[in-house]
Design brief:
Distance between the termini of chain A: 26 Å
Helix content of chain B: 25-40%
Structural class of chain B: alpha/beta
Oligomer: heterodimer
Number of helices of chain B: 7
Largest sheet of chain A: 6 strands, mixed, barrel
Structural class of chain A: alpha+beta
Strand content of chain A: 15-25%
Order of helices and strands of chain A: HHEHEEHEEEEHEHEHEHHHEEHH
CATH class of chain B: Alpha Beta
Chain lengths: ~425, ~230
């Protein structure tokens, strides 16, 4: 079957059949192949991208590239000032932000409450003490202000509050969840941290799809430090932004070598991903592959039908070719080559659409999913693998019908007998 | 050159057995121009399909140049047809996507001839049938007579031992039919063995010998004087 002569004749026939067949038919088949390719790559890419978008957002808005946090056995990072010094000496470090984190209870509208039996307007969360300039340099927190304005150094007794703590942004009414109502920039709120109560003013409201941003309260670090009595300057969390192109593993390992892990947990943004996020990503990838597999089967059936109909309607000519001495294998190869052509052209056009338009477009305009800004994840290696799968599937789908027709009795084919 | 011994062909239509060829014995010598004639259903086309190796006889033997063909595999028969036989079909049987010259060149390419040489040979074959200027035209752009001439070119381009023609003039007008028969006569003069099936007596008479079949049997073998 695989003699060079058969390939030569197969190619000769395939090229001419493709060149001289209907442009519309060829276009339709190629269009189906493009859709199949996009189905193979884009569906799984969007599903994975949905989670990847969430991961990227967590990195961008919260953990940054490397995050240092307290050990499980400690309530804060011991020797934080020393650790910060070590971090700052690493050349690849661009910016860092250190955070104090404590539990907080919030109460609003306490001044207007007239009846003691009235349920207080309260919510519970975490309060984060930040240096607004450093925090903004690392996470760009100010981007997520939707009402009011961002904190400035010296903004004592002022807070930023996450939108998920406010009823107007989370209109959920269930017994396990409480959010503040009638709160807007300028509202007075009573916060209680470590038993210390303080009245603060809401300076701004933050809204982001990252829960760590939208479900927290932010205050100037020096004020929180004094409220919790952390006079040793030991913080709870340090996020480190690296210079562009730096592998976070390099810095993580450098910090580990410096012995930072004796006092704190050092993780890259990947290490810091919650396990359930990784599980969801893997699940979605699997789901995407399953959907893609169905797409592959559909593509194979499409090619099978196209080639079968093509070969069936040309059965007489196949009979004539065999009759004048053209090898059946050469005829089969001609159909396989046509299938490969459709798969390659479809994949090539799909490839250009994917990397030339879809991926950059979605990167610029992420898909607005409720819990993440979905991107399109389509690594080149995965795409090439899918193209290979598509080509293999179409080769098989092209060969089988061609073989079915070619193996029919030559004379029956010529005379159109069943 | 071709020896047919006790050739039988039976078709099964459900439970019904139809015997089309009933024990033919016949010899065709090299360089002969034979017209197989007979009424519709006499078995003339079936006879030609058997001796041209396009079909398998139910019983009997076909020996071509001393080679018993019933022992050949399908692949061997295909190669035999490619290298030693040529075919002209009633409905021209050209491949619609190939130009005239490509149609003619195809068997040559399959024999391993380099493309350039195959195209030149094919072009020369077209020239011999008066179609030198039609090489780049598709079959759909040619008249019936021209298509049949392309078909003859394809059949003779590789100098086959035997040229088979199945009702080559059936779909043609009188003028085109005469042109085709003139080509056959020319080829015969050059020593080409030709076996032609026809139901048209005036063209059958142009052959060297007429073999008449009736009800699956040879009823007459007549030498024509022309």
């Amino acid at each position: 079957m695989f003699s060079p002569l058969n390939f030569r004749i197969g190619f000769f026939l395939a090229v001419r059949q493709l060149r001289r067949s209907s442009v519309w038919t060829n276009s339709l088949i190629i269009f189906v192949m493009v859709l199949t390719f996009l189905n193979l790559v884009v569906v799984s890419g969007i599903l994975v991208g949905l989670i990847q978008g969430s991961i990227e957002a967590l990195r961008d808005q919260y953990t940054s590239d490397v995050v240092v946090s307290n050990l499980k056995t400690k309530s804060y990072i011991e020797f934080s000032p020393d650790i910060i010094q070590i971090i700052q000496k690493i050349p690849q470090v661009q910016n860092i932000t250190a955070r104090y984190i404590e539990g907080v209870s919030l109460e609003a509208n306490y001044k207007t409450k007239t009846d003691d039996r009235e349920k207080p307007n309260t919510a519970g969360s975490e309060i984060v003490g930040i240096d607004p300039i450093a925090e903004n340099a690392v996470t760009g927190l100010s981007r997520w202000i939707i009402e009011g304005s961002f904190l400035e150094p010296g903004d004592y007794d002022q807070i930023l509050i996450g939108s998920n703590l406010l009823k107007k942004y989370v209109p959920v009414d269930n017994p396990g969840f409480s959010a503040l109502y009638d709160v807007e920039p300028g509202s007075k709120i009573r916060i209680k941290v470590n038993g210390i109560e303080r009245e603060v003013t809401v300076k701004g409201i933050l809204k982001s799809k990252v829960q760590e941003v939208s479900l927290r309260v932010y205050i100037i670090d020096s004020q929180l430090r004094s409220m919790i009595g952390r006079n040793d300057f030991n913080v709870d969390e340090i996020s480190i932004k690296l210079t562009t192109g730096t592998d976070p593993l390099v810095v993580r390992d450098a910090l580990r070598r410096e012995g930072v892990t004796r006092y704190a947990k050092v993780q890259t943004y990947v290490d810091a991903q919650p396990k359930f996020i990784k599980d969801i990503r893997d699940t979605f990838a699997l789901l995407g592959n399953m959907i893609s597999s169905i797409g592959l089967v559909v593509a194979s059936i499409t090619i099978f039908i196209v080639i079968f109909i093509n070969a069936l309607t040309r059965r007489k000519f196949i009979g004539i070719l065999k009759g004048i001495g053209i090898s059946g294998h050469a005829i089969e190869i001609s159909y396989v080559m046509q299938s490969i052509f459709y798969a390659f052209i479809g994949s090539a056009i799909g490839f250009v659409i994917l990397y030339g338009f879809l991926q950059p477009f979605i990167a610029r305009h992420p898909i607005d999913f409720p819990f993440s800004d979905g991107i399109l994840v389509a690594p080149l290696s995965g795409t090439l693998l899918r193209i290979s799968l598509l080509v293999v599937a179409t080769v098989i789908a092209g060969y089988i019908p061609a073989r079915m027709i070619v193996r029919k009795n030559t004379l029956d084919s010529i005379l159109g007998r069943k | 050159m071709i020896e047919v011994k006790n050739l039988h062909k039976t078709f099964m239509n459900g439970q019904v057995e139809t015997s089309v060829l009933k024990g033919l014995d016949f010899k065709i010598e090299k360089g002969e121009f034979i017209a197989i004639m007979g009424r519709s259903g006499a078995g003339k086309s079936t006879f030609m399909y058997q001796i041209s190796l396009l079909d398998e006889p139910t019983r009997g033997e076909i020996i071509i140049d001393g080679i018993s063909t019933h022992t050949m595999t399908t692949e061997q028969k295909t190669t035999f047809r490619l290298t030693r036989l040529g075919y002209v079909f009633q409905d021209y049987a050209l491949i619609p996507e190939l130009t005239a010259v490509e149609n003619v060149a195809l068997p040559l390419l399959m024999q391993g001839m380099p493309t350039k040489k195959a195209m030149t040979t094919a072009q020369n074959a077209l020239k011999t049938v008066g179609l030198a200027t039609h090489g780049n035209q598709l079959p759909s752009q040619l008249s019936g007579g021209e298509q049949q001439r392309v078909s003859i070119s394809r059949a003779i381009s590789h100098n086959p031992d035997i040229l088979f023609a199945d009702e080559p003039t059936a779909n043609l007008d009188n003028e085109s039919s005469l042109t085709i028969m003139d080509i056959f006569k020319q080829l015969h003069k050059q020593g080409q063995t030709i076996i032609m099936v026809t139901h048209e007596e005036e063209y059958g008479k142009m052959a060297e010998k007429t073999v008449t079949l009736n009800d699956g049997r040879i009823v007459q073998v007549k030498k024509n004087t022309n």
